Amino acid sequence: MRSAEHFGISTCLRKLGVDSIRRIIFLMAVIVLVAACGKAKEEALLPGSQVLALGDSLTEGAGVTPDEAWPNLLASRTGWVVINGGVSGDTSGAALQRLPALLEQYNPALVLVALGGNDMLRHIPQEETITNLGLILTQIKAHGAKAVLLGTPKPSVARAVFRNLSAPDFYRRVAEEHQVPLIENAVADVLSDPLMKGDPLHPNVAGHALLSKKLFDALKSIGYAR
Question: I need a labelling partner for 188 at 20 to 30 A (CA). Which of 39, 156, 162, 219 fits?
Answer without folding.
Answer: 39
